[in-house]
C-alpha cells in the first residue's frame, strides 16, 4: 500500500495515472500534479469514471525546487514519478534528495537551451542518492525503458554476448493530420533535428540529422517501413552494460509527409530553440510552433493502426551465432478504448507504472541512480504481459 506522486498531466501522465488506478493493492493513493491543475482535474475525472478511483490533484511548478519540496513534505509520497518535461529532471531530483523520497522518470535531462541527450547530469547524483538511501530509476518508458529491459532479458536468457544491437521504433498509425507530433512537440522536434549518433567498436560516430536510413520488414502484417538513424539516450547506458557489444544504433520510422513538413519548418527557422525578437519581445520559435500544432492528447480518438518497437540483437550463444528480435505491437484503437490515449502515450505510460510498481514492491530497489538494464529483467517482462504490453520473440535465421 503506497502513495505515488505523478508530476505531469500530458498524454503519458494520463496513461500512468489510469494504469496506477487499476492496481489499488500497490498504488493505494495517487496524487497528480502539474503546472495546470485543470489538466489534472480532467484526468482525475476520467479515472473516476473508468475505475471508480479517486485521484488527488494539485497545481505544482516542478521548476521551483522549494515549492516542490514543500509539496512533497505536505503529502509525503513513497515515490515521485516524473512525467513532466526533461528540463524538470534535475529540479525534481533535487527535491527528492531534500525530502528522502525515491524518484523515477522516463527521459533523461536536457538543458532548455541545447538539444542534447546525456545522462552525465543525472549520473552525477549517484553518491548523493546512495548516501541518502534513496533510489532514482532512469528512463522507465518504452525507448528508453522497455527496450533496455528487452536487452537485459536477452542477455540473461539468449546470449553469452550481444555483439550488435538495433533498437527500432515504428509508428504505423495514422492520425489524419497534415503535421502533428505524437508527444510533446517541443521535445519531439528537438530530438529529431539533432545530429545522429551510434556506437561502433568502442567509439561514437556522428551523422547528419536523418541522413542514414534502412528498410525493415516489421512483423505481424505491418510490413516494410523506412527507418532513419537517430541518437537516443538508452544507447549511452546500454553500451556500458551489455557484454561484448560492438555496435549499437537506434532507428525510427517517419512518413515522407512528416519529413517534408519538418524540413520546411526547419528551413524557415521555426524549429530554432534560441530566442528571437518579435515586436519587442523575446520568443523561442519552437515554443510558438508548439502552441499552434495539435495537442498530442487530442490525437487519441483520431489515430488508427499499430506501433511496433523492439530490440534486434545479434550475438553468440554456446559458440553459435544467433539473431533475435524482441518486440511489442500496440494498437492505437485499443489504447484509446482502455485509457483514452493513443499508443505512443500508452507505450510510455504503462512502463512508467511498471517501473514504479517494481520499486514500491522492492523487486527493484537499491540506493543510488540506476538505468533499467541494471536490474533483473524477469519481473518487469512478466508485468509487461499482464498490464497491456505483451511481447514476442522472433528468431531470425
Layout of SSEs?
Blueprint: E1 2-7, H1 11-21, E2 27-34, H2 37-51, E3 56-59, H3 65-75, E4 79-82, H4 89-99, E5 102-105, H5 120-123, H6 126-132, E6 135-138, H7 146-157, E7 161-171, H8 185-193, E8 196-200, E9 203-207, E10 213-218, E11 223-230, H9 234-241, E12 247-253, H10 256-267, E13 276-278, E14 281-283, H11 285-292, E15 306-317, E16 320-331, H12 332-339, H13 343-360, E17 368-371, H14 377-386, E18 391-395
Parallel strand pairs: 1-2, 1-4, 2-3, 4-5, 5-6, 6-17, 7-12
Antiparallel strand pairs: 7-15, 8-9, 8-12, 10-11, 11-12, 13-14, 15-16, 16-18
Helix pairs in contact: 1-2, 1-13, 3-4, 7-14, 13-14
Defining key terms:
alpha/beta, 397 residues, Dihydrodipicolinate Reductase, domain 2, 7-stranded parallel β-sheet
Distance between the termini: 47 Å
Radius of gyration: 20 Å
Shape: globular
CATH architecture of the domain at 146-339: 2-Layer Sandwich
CATH class of the domain at 146-339: Alpha Beta
Secondary structural class: alpha/beta
- Helical content band: 25-40%
The CATH topology of the domain at 146-339 corresponds to Dihydrodipicolinate Reductase, domain 2
Strand count: 18
The DSSP helix count reads 14
Instruction: Name the CATH superfamily classification of the domain at 146-339.
Output: Dihydrodipicolinate Reductase, domain 2
Largest sheet: 9 strands, mixed
Q: What fraction strand?
A: 25-35%
Poorly predicted residue ranges: none
The overall average pLDDT, rounded, is 93
Amino acid at each position: 500500500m503506497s502513495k505515488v506522486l505523478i508530476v505531469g498531466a500530458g498524454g503519458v501522465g494520463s496513461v500512468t495515472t489510469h494504469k496506477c488506478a487499476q492496481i489499488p493493492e500497490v498504488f493505494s493513493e495517487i496524487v497528480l500534479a502539474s503546472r495546470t491543475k485543470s489538466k489534472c482535474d480532467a484526468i482525475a475525472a476520467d479515472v473516476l469514471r473508468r475505475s471508480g478511483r479517486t485521484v488527488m490533484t494539485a497545481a505544482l511548478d516542478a521548476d521551483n525546487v522549494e515549492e516542490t519540496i514543500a509539496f512533497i513534505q505536505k503529502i509525503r509520497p513513497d515515490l515521485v514519478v516524473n512525467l513532466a518535461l526533461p528540463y524538470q529532471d534535475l529540479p525534481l531530483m533535487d527535491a527528492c534528495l531534500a525530502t528522502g523520497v525515491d524518484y523515477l522518470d522516463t527521459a533523461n535531462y536536457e538543458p532548455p537551451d541545447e538539444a542534447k541527450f546525456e545522462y552525465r547530469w543525472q549520473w552525477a547524483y549517484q553518491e548523493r542518492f546512495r548516501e541518502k538511501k534513496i533510489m532514482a530509476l532512469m528512463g522507465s518508458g518504452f525507448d528508453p525503458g522497455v527496450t533496455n529491459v528487452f536487452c537485459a532479458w536477452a542477455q540473461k536468457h539468449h546470449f553469452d554476448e550481444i555483439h550488435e544491437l538495433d533498437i527500432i521504433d515504428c509508428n504505423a498509425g495514422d492520425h489524419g493530420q497534415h503535421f502533428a507530433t505524437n508527444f510533446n512537440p517541443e521535445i519531439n522536434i528537438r530530438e529529431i533535428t539533432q545530429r545522429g549518433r551510434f556506437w561502433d567498436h568502442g567509439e561514437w560516430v556522428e551523422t547528419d540529422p536523418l541522413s542514414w536510413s534502412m528498410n525493415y520488414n516489421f512483423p505481424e502484417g505491418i510490413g516494410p517501413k523506412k527507418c532513419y538513424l537517430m541518437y537516443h539516450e538508452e544507447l549511452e547506458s546500454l553500451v556500458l552494460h551489455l557484454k561484448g557489444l560492438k555496435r549499437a544504433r537506434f532507428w525510427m520510422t517517419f512518413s515522407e509527409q512528416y519529413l517534408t513538413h519538418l524540413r520546411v519548418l526547419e528551413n524557415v527557422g521555426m524549429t530554432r530553440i534560441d530566442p528571437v525578437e518579435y515586436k519587442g519581445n523575446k520568443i523561442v520559435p519552437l515554443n510558438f510552433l508548439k502552441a499552434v500544432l495539435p495537442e498530442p492528447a487530442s490525437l487519441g480518438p483520431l489515430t488508427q493502426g499499430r506501433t511496433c518497437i523492439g530490440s534486434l540483437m545479434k550475438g553468440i550463444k554456446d559458440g553459435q551465432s544467433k539473431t533475435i528480435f524482441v518486440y511489442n505491437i500496440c494498437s492505437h484503437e485499443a489504447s484509446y478504448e482502455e485509457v483514452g490515449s493513443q499508443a505512443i502515450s500508452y507505450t510510455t505510460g504503462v512502463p512508467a507504472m511498471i517501473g514504479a510498481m517494481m520499486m514500491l514492491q522492492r523487486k527493484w530497489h537499491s540506493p543510488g541512480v540506476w538505468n533499467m538494464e541494471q536490474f533483473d529483467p524477469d519481473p518487469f517482462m512478466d508485468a509487461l504481459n499482464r498490464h497491456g504490453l505483451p511481447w514476442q520473440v522472433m528468431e531470425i535465421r
